[in-house]
Every structure is written in C-alpha cells, then in structure tokens.
Amino acid sequence: MNLLTQPVGPMHYLLVGAVLFVCGVICMTAKRNALGVLMGIELVLNGATLNFVAFGSRFLRGDSASSLGLDGQLMALFVIVLAAAEAAVALAIALNFYHTHATIDVDDASELKG
Amino acid sequence: MAEYLKTFLPESYAWLAYTAAAAVHVALLFVLAMMIVAVSNWAERKIAGRLQDRLGPTRVGGRFGWLQSVADGLKLLTKEDLVPAGADRFLFRLAPYLCFCASFSVYLALPMASGWVAQPMNVAVFFVLAVAGLEVLGVILAGYASGSKWSLFGGMREAAQVVSYEVPLALCAAIPVMVAGTMDLVEIGNRQAGGFWQWQIFHDPFTFLTFFVFLTCAVASVNRAPFDLAEAESELVAGFMTEYSGFRWSVFFMAEYASMFAVSVLGAILFFGGWNGPLPVASLLGLTCENHPLAGYLGGLLGLCNLLVKGYLGIIFMMWLRWTLPRLRIDQVMTVCLKYCIPLAAAMLLGAMLWCYALPGGLWAAVENFGG
Amino acid sequence: MSVAIQWHSLFFLLMALAACGAALAVVLSANVVRMAFWLVVSLGAVAGLFFLAGADLVGTLQLMVYVGGTLVLLVFGVMLTARQPFVDMRTAPTQWLVAALVGASLLAVLWQAALSVDRWAGRGQTLADRQAQAEPTAAPLGLALVGVRVDKPDQADPRLRDGMAGYLLPFEVISVHLVVVLIGAAHLARAKRRPTSPEPPQTPRTPE
Amino acid sequence: MGLERVDPEPVECDVRTDEILVNMGPQHPSTHGVLRLVLRTDGEVVLEVTPHVGYLHRCAEKIGENLAARQWIPYTDRMDYLAGMNMNLGWALTVEKLLKLEVPERARHLRVLIVELNRIASHLMAAGSFGLDLGSFTPFMYCFREREKILDLFELACGARLTYSYITVGGLMADLPPGWLPKCEAFLKDFEPVIDELHAVLTSNAILIRRSAAVGVLSPEMAIDYGCTGPVLRGSGVAWDLRRHGDPWYTRMYDGYRFEVIAQTAGHYPQDRKYPPVPAVAVLGDSWHRFYVRMLEVVQSMGLVRQALERYGRCPAGIGEPLRLTQKLPKGEVYLETEATKGQMGFMVVSDGSAIPWRVRARSSSFCNLSVLPELCRGCLIGDIPAILGSLDIVLGEIDR
To answer: Alpha-carbon distance D128 to D149, whole Å?
Structure first.
C-alpha cells in the first residue's frame, strides 16, 4: 500500500522507463526476426521518451526549478515523430531484404562479413 | 458527484465514493453507446427496407419492429462462438474487444452538451481522432488471427485505407480547430452558440467546402459503403469478419456503429454548432446555469437532444449512401484519398488560414462590416 | 497527508504494470504478431503514463502517430513478410542467456541511477499542489515549435528570450527529414523492376 | 474501332510480396452458384484465375438418353434455371425439327411472348446481380421486384415460378388463362419507367462506371475465338443474334417481328429512345458494355412482347398437341442452336428410330462464356473479379448440366 498512498515522482517514471529500455535491448539482441529487432528499438525509444516526459513534467516535479520544462515534452515529440520515420525506413529495408532473401531472419544478412 | 457522495460516508471510505461516481459515469456512457448501437441497428434495417421498397422489420415489439435489435442481440448471444482450427486463438478472441475499446474510448472525450463530457480535455479533437484510429489495430489482428486468406485481405485493406484516410481527416479537423482557436471540443461547441449562422460551416467558404471533404474522409475512416472494402461482401466474403460468429461478431458490429456515431458527433461539433440548435432557443428561454442550476440542466438536455439529432442525421446519411452506391475498388479508394482528399484539404487549410488572417470574424462578421 | 489512496498513484501503478508487463511479453513471445500486439499494449500504456504526467499532447501524439501509425505500419510489414502464417524464429538458448545478462546488468545500473536522487521520488507535495501547477501544454508546445517560448519569459540571455530558444529550426529540419525519409522508404520498398502496366495498380503505403 | 487488348503479360506491381493461392468458391457469395475459382494473387493483383466447374453436375444428358423426348423437358428447365422457358424452347424446337413438326400460328406467337418475357426476367437478374457484385444492393431488390411480377405472370400461365416445362415438343402445355393478356400489358406499362430508374442507379452511376469500364476488356476476335455468344459477344461489338442470323427453323419463329440486334457497331448502339450515353472511359468489350447490352436488350424484348401480344390475340385457338410419349422419332440427327438469354444454347438429338433418343447433347452458352474468364482476369484486382464474372452472367446449372 506504500505505493498507493504516496504521490508519484519522476523516479517511478524512470523505473518504468528502465524496464522498457531493458526489454527493448533484450529484444534487439535476442530476436532473429528483423521486425522483432525493430520492435525492440521502438521499446527503447519509448523508455527514453518516458524519461524526457517525466523530467519535463511540472505535474510530477511539483517545483518548476531545475526542471526540463517544456523542453522535455518537445524532445518527446521529436522522438515520436522520428521514430515513425525510422520505422518506415526500417520496414522498407526489411521488405527489400525479404524480396532478395525470402526471409527476414537477420542472421542471414551476412554478405558484408569479411 | 464524488464530493456529494463523500458526505454520506466516513473519511476512510472516501475511495468508495470515488469508485461509485466513476462507475455511474461509465455506466451512463456505456448505456448511451449501447442505445445508439441498438437504435442504429434498427434504423439501418428499417431505412434499408424503405429504400428497397420493402417494409423492414415489422414483427418484434409492435408495428414498426421497435424491438428488433433486442431480438437480434438475443440471437447473436445464443449462437455458437466458433474459433477456426487454423486461428491464433488468443488474438482471435481478443481482437473484437480491441476494436470495441477503441471506438468506445472516443466517447470519453466527446461532449454531449455544453460541459457534459466525461473527461474534459485540452486536446479533445486530437484525442478523438487518435483513439478512433486505433480501431484499425483490432481489425488487422482479427484479419491476421483468423488464419483465413479472405480475412487477411480484409485486414490489409483496412490497414491501408484507414492509415491513409487519417491524414485528410486530421487536416479537415484542423480547419475548424484553427478557426475556433482551440482543440477543446467543449470550447469549440460553445463558440458556435447563437444561431445557425454562427456555425463554423458558415464561417467562410473554405470551411463550407472542408465539411464535404471531412464527410468523405469520415465515411471512409469508419469503413462504411462505398468505402467498406475491408468487409466487401461480394469480394472478400465478409473480410476480417469472415470467421467470426455470435457474440464476437456482434462486438465488431457494435464498434462499427459506435464509431459511426462518434464521427458524426465530431462533425456536428466541429461544423454544425454541436449542441447549439439552429436558433438559440435555450438562451432565449433562459435555460442557463446562471439563472438556476435546474434551468442549466434543462438547457443541457436540450443541447443533448440537438446533438443526438445531428449525430443521427449523419448516421442516416451514411446509411443512405450504403444502400445506394456501389463499392469503390481498392486502388480507387486510394486515389480518392491521395489525389483528391489530401490536396483539397491542404488547399482548404491554406484558404481558411488566409481568410482568418484577412477577415478574422468569419463570413457573418464580414457581411456585417460590409453593411455597416 | 492522509492515508487515503491517491488515485493518481493507483492509475500510475496500473499503467506502469501494463507497460512493463506487455514489454516483457514482447520479449518473451515467439510469434511476431503477438509481439506486435503486446507492443501495442505497452505503447498504449505509455501513452496513459504521459497523460498521467500531465503531458496530454504528447500522450495523444503517442496514440496517434506511434500506436495508430507506426505500429499499423509494423503489423503491415509483419503480414507482408510472413511466409506462412504465424512464423516464429527461435533464438538459441545461449543467445538468450547473453541477452538476459546484458539486460540484467543494464537494468541494475538504471535502477540504481533512478533511485539515487532523492529529489526525484516526488515526496512532500500533495496532489492538490500539483494540480495547481498543472497547466495545458498544447498551446505552449505549439508556440515553442514555431519559435516562441511562452514558458520561459525570464530568460537571462536576451538572444534566447527573442525566440532563439524555440524549436523552429529543429521543427523545419525534422519536417524536411520526414519528407525525405518517406520518399526514400517508398523508393526502397519498390521492387526493382520496371512495371509494364502504364498505371501501377497500387501505390506504396507510407505513414503519415 | 479503338479497341484495347488486355496486356497478356503478368502485371508487375510496386510492393512485391508473396504469391497467395486463394480459393474463391464454391461457397463464395459472388460466384453465382457453386463455381470455384482458384486465384493466384500477388497482394490484391490477380495473376491467374482457374475456374473449376462440375459441382452441380447431374448427368442431365445421360438422363435424356433414357427418357422420351418430351419427358426431358423438365430437365432442360433445371439447366438455366433463370430462363427455363428459353431452355424448353431450345429442346422443343430441336425435336420438332427432327420430326418436321409444325406448331400452329397461335403457339408460335405465344412462344415468342413467353420466351421474351423470360429474357426480360433473366436480364433483370443479370443486371441486379451485377450491381450486387459491385456492392450496390438496392438495385438488386428493384430488379427482383420486377422479376417477381414476370414470375407471377408465368405462374398464372403454367402454375410454376421457376421450372416451368411450359413450352413442349409440339406446342405448349396449355393456353393462357382468361384475363392474362391485360395483366401482361399492365406489367409492361409499369415496367417502362423502372428501366429509367435502373439506368439512373446502375448504368449512369459514376462509381459503377468506374468499377466496370475498361475492366475485363474482351476483343471481338477473342470473343469469337473462345466461342462467346449472346450479350457477351454483342458487348464486344459483334452484331450477331441467332434470332436473326440463326437456323431457319428457329428464325422463322420471329418472322414478321421487328427488333434490333443490340451491339455497338460503327461507334454507336441502335437506339430508338433516349438512353444514358456511353461513358468516355468505357472501352468496347468491357464489363460495362456487356451490362449495357443487356439493359438495351430488355427494351427490345419488351417490344417483341408487345408485338407478340397483339399477334397472339388475332390468332385462332389451338396451341398444338404435345408429343405423345410413345411416338417414335425418325432415324437421324439434328443439332439446333437458339438464342437463349445467356448466349447460344444448342441441343443435339440423335435418334435410332425408337421413342427414346439414342444420344442427347446440350451445348452450354455459359460454359463457353466462362472459358474466357482466365483471359479477362489476368492482371486485374481482386475487386474486379466479381465485376467481370457478373458481367459474363453465367448460370452454373447450365454449365455443369
């Protein structure tokens, strides 16, 4: 009940962000499906965005001093928009790879190995 | 409401008051949405019947078949709920509820009269558009999880169509937002109080034209004919709903009607004054909160009726379209969106922007200025 | 401070659990469509967290662009590349082990870092205090994007006060970047063959 | 003539994905019965269509070799069940030609009357279901409403609404009941404005035009090569109608009747009243033209019905004697094609001198019309398949027999 009775601060957001970030990293390293890797990247980006919003939120901090203020939210906006662009390009690459290799297993993408 | 309930309860049970208040709000919204679904279902059958020179339902619940929706619901509830052998069972079962959640969450931010909104929101227009667009995820998952190629085609079509039509829809919604200067739906509605000449559709020629682009995109984004490609009966059997039966199918059905009404109400608030009638009857009669809380309540009720009528006009228009027009082909749907709707909406945005810059008061003010 | 439940905290807990649980499910599910589904849940819950942090514009944008656009695109990609329905590519146990080790150590570092600053815990204010400070963010954000910072009128540096602290340039850069990326993605996704039909029947799909 | 052939090369599409093999039918809503199409598609683009027939095979021809000639009439009803009268007529004329059996003048006009009414009913069904295939439900109901009125007339005449067995070898089963002629005239009068309605909701509907114009273009050469007949052939601009160009044994039934063969020759359709113009996007031989030909033929059939009504009324009583079941057929063989509603319906009878034919054969018009489907559908979109199939207007009962 401790968590329920005390107000939420940026710390709590950071913890959630950390979990998302780590899940994303594991996805990126462990998944063999190119789209799985892409999903890992999305998770990582979201974990980071969460931190930006948490630090930028006056609502959480309660004090406006030394806060990121609106900059945090602006960063979050940019991350979201850029993630959309990144997903489009990554998907195009995955599709192209699929046409040439008939699979999207990233372990098969090894032509550039010496 | 929670504060009112709290007075009856000891301090340590304050949470009960909040929960009860929340439950009542949720129940109200849910009942509203379900009533809309039930009435729309009946109306669709009746209107289709009349358009096709037949009577439509006449048996259940009296001469006009008022209770047909109840009978339909009972039938669907008692039908067997099949899951195909090749389906991804988990996602297959979940997909209808995802659709349902998305289209009902829209009601969270839709005001039903001045101030009658579940969650007042600063970015309500944006929120409504965003949440309404989430319905597509349920459809895609349904199409994929069914393990049927027809369903897959339906899901793919829906994905392509809805993601494309969100762009012109958002552009069209941006124009009244810009004219009103706020994204708060309550505020937008209140700004159009007065009379029908204050409605935003009559603000300037650009908003007038925008409404028709908005109408096209709205019909397309809720997948109604002639844009009902995802469930194109003669091509894809029933698209993403092919493998669904019984209750799960009816959940999709409810989601469709709920989002139809939501988009109609959104259009009504953005362009047709929302809860403000064509003539300012409520303020003429003095039905405002300043006079008496009860009078304010009555005025709100009047506004609700206004909005419901406007929303239903939208729904009836969509039904009329559905039972009249043939279906477009997928490439033609995309052409309509990319080659016509988006450039038109963009041009309207530019035009409305210039108009707002040159004649800030809108057409009515411009006429008055000219006369004066 | 009363012992009554803080509703804000309760909802935060719900959303946080949904986000973390779904993120874990993304890691653990083998089927790529289920991964996409859990990702939707996770990102949706993150949008909820944004709302709870008072960032309603960012939350809505997350719902619209991320969940409604990017993820639809992703699921679309999954469908296009699923050779047989319900593909799963198993990862070797040793790779899982390495990934788990990396993840666990990273988590430990981040966890420690988050807990290390006491000021971040957010103790000491009531909800009422915070609600007094919360204000709509849509208009200031929009103004900041076109270069006017209404939230920082007391800038010491006059250059920053005159709009240099705004985000007009990044905004423009990102707009151009988006256009370039979308054209590039559309070009990349096309098959490298000359279509023989005079009018291609399908245009490549791009997100908004 | 400004014809465009469909590019026979498989269409290259932008975003290439896996080829999918899809089964369309035999339980698909728009395959007009139990047709099964196997589609090889790349996304929405159809690379190849293979029709599979035979789900409705009932050994009709073999049955005909074990029955007296007149007993086979009910089986012809069940071939093209949307135009039973035309099927009856085809078989009756074939056997009559073998027997050199003349029918009385009153029976001749009654046959024209009934057969053309059935043609209207069949074309209405084709037009309505074409609209339905393109997603427009309401015109289908309008077409059905008018068709019901024709079926009511048939019910009055012969007691049946679908499988009539009315026209028989040697004449007809019964003369018209009293009061039938005014009812038929009333129907024609009511029907006239409905045609304009149908033109408004179907023929000149912008979406329908865009869905069907330049879709499934069938060149006249290809139509002839594949043996396409009826409205499908005429939709490609070939003015060929067996009622005018057929066997004399058949064409003399229409002696003295005025009607136009509906086909776009020299750039325009024969028109005796105002119809919606041919849209600029339409290409001769596409789905829209096939549909349009049927709509115009309905009007021609109405004219024929009017003429037949008048002539029938002037004839003395006597509609012929049905052939006795024990009557021996003369030795020999006869093949006769008639202009049924879907195309040229041919019947062949070979007799060894007994009352029961030695060999019976039916040449299905829908079968030949369907055979061109793989050519028409190559490279189209999935949404075009119902449009093309609907414009071919096939009936599986006739294909599978």
So the answer is: 15
Q: Which of B235, B321, B338 to mutate to test the interface with D (most CBs of D within 10 A)?
A: B235
How many helices and strands in chain D, by DSSP H and E? 16, 8
Q: Is A32 on the interface with C (CB under 8 A)?
A: yes
CB distance from B144 to chain D under 8 Å?
A: no
Q: What is the interface pTM, i.e. ipTM, of the complex?
A: 0.77
CA distance B53 to D144: 11
CA separation, residue D34 to residues B315, D27, D37, D51, D390 (Å)? 36, 6, 10, 11, 14
Contact D62, D364 (CB under 8 A): no
Start-end of CATH 1.20.120.1200 domains in chain C: 1-89
pLDDT digits (tens, 9 = 90+) for D158-179: 888 888 889 988 888 888 888 8
SS3 D82: coil
Structural domains of chain D, with CATH: 59-400 (1.10.645.10)
CA distances (Å), origin C189, targets A41, A55, B161, B164 = 20, 38, 18, 17
Is residue C136 scored above 80 in pLDDT? no
Per domain, the residue ranges of chain A are: 8-101
User: Phi/psi zone of residue B237: left (φ > 0), alpha (ψ -120 to 50 degrees), beta?
Assistant: left
Neighbours of C154 (CB within 10 A): 6
Residues of chain B with Cβ-Cβ distance to C138 below 8 Å are: 122-123, 126, 183
**pLDDT confidence tier of residue D7, bands split at 50, 70 and 90:** very low
Q: Which CATH architecture has domain A8-101?
A: Orthogonal Bundle (1.10)
Phi and psi at residue B271, in whole multiples of 5°? Answer: -115, -30
Choice between D132 and A70, residue whose per-residue pLDDT is larger? D132
Domain boundaries, chain B: 1-78, 89-364
The mean pLDDT value of chain C amounts to 72
Residue C203: pLDDT band with limits 50, 70, 90 = very low
Residues comprising chain A, all counted: 114
pLDDT in tens, D200-247: 888 888 888 888 888 888 888 888 888 888 899 888 888 888 888 888
**Cβ-nearest to D383 among B52, B225, B329:** B329
Residues in chain C: 208
In three-state secondary structure terms, D359 is strand
Architecture of domain C1-89: Up-down Bundle (1.20)
Whether A44 shows a pLDDT value over 60: the answer reads yes
**Sign of the torsion angle spanned by Cα atoms D103, D104, D110, D116:** positive
Question: How far are the Cα atoms of A108, C102, D72 from residue A113, in angstroms, in the given order?
Answer: 11, 24, 77
The yes-or-no verdict on residue C1 having pLDDT over 50 is no
* Chains near C (3 or more Cβ pairs under 8 Å): A, B, D
